[in-house]
Amino acid sequence: MEVIIQPDPQAASAVAARIISHTLRDKPNAVLGLATGSTPILLYNELVRMHRAGYLDFSQVTTFNLDEYVGLQPAHPASYYSFMFEHLFNHINVKRENINIPNGLADDIPGHCRAYEERIKACGGIDLQILGVGTEGHIGFNEPTSSLGSRTRSKTLTPRTRFDNAPYFGSESKVPRHVITMGIGTIMEARTVVLIAYGSSKANAIAQTVEGPVSSMMPASILQMHPVAKVITDEAAASQLRNTSYYRWVYEQKPEWQQF
Ligand code: F6R
After folding, report:
1. Residue 255 Cα, ligand 1 centroid: separation in angstroms?
2. Of 16, 100, 195, 214, most Cβ neighbours within 10 A?
3. Cα 222-225-228 angle, rounded to 5 deg
């Protein structure tokens, strides 16, 4: 696991954007796994900026989002469908038919989840998966005690996640109880995984993810088993890590050719 600590969310998002741009330079038809929530907004702003400046072309890219709420209309302002179009898809040249977001209104949710997995496989698998992390360590909406081998399926949110996401809905009681999420097994098959986390509310999750035991109680800790996992944080999210001087030293020593 590579830990990259940056002074602030802006700088950390710029590093994550550079990783995406290197991926697209090497493979213009890459398959990107995308996250929603407050964390990736700066990253998406940066991707839009790079696209507008002519540095990034998404015309051959395929995307798969991690998750969606069950029962929300795509047009609902708090749906992840709305989020993705507002923050990214409306501003880049990705083809509509190459965008995949779980359908929280599917009649047959297990069938829809199986089809989502099949589509990821048919597209050749995910090259680069962007992740945020919940305060209790979820990735996607794989809450603590989720199977570390799980596949795309519906999950029930924890009270803490519904509390954390209440601002998007106006009140906690309006936050849906169920979601569709890629599984941990699905996420672990991505060729590269980049987890971004900002702010002191993520400090415990980051410390446990990077330096704690691998445990389904802290789902993000499974990334210790991933061959190419990068964790990019600001100073606040890194504040409970023990080995920070080593992580900083490794990053400074990286030869240019190995940067990302
Ligand atoms: C969203 C997702 C979640 C979020 C996590 C952090 O697609 O998969 O795991 O990344 O809940 O959310 P924020 O960024 O709002 O703190």
Report:
1. 32
2. 195
3. 110
Which pLDDT tens digit goes with each residue over 171-210? 999 999 999 999 999 999 999 999 999 999 999 999 999 9
Per the structure, how many domains does the chain have?
A: 1
202-221 pLDDT, tens digit each: 999 999 999 999 999 999 99
What is the pTM assigned to this prediction? 0.97
Q: Which atom of ligand 1 is nearest to the CA of 201?
A: 16
> Is residue 243 within 8 Å of 1, Cβ to Cβ?
no
By residue range, what is the domain housing residue 128? 2-258
Residues 257 and 18: their CA atoms lie apart, in Å, by: 14
32, 34, 38, 39, best to mutate for ligand 1 pocket (most atoms within 8 Å of CB): 39
Domain CATH number, residue 76: 3.40.50.1360
Q: How far apart are CA 260 and CA 18, in angstroms?
A: 8
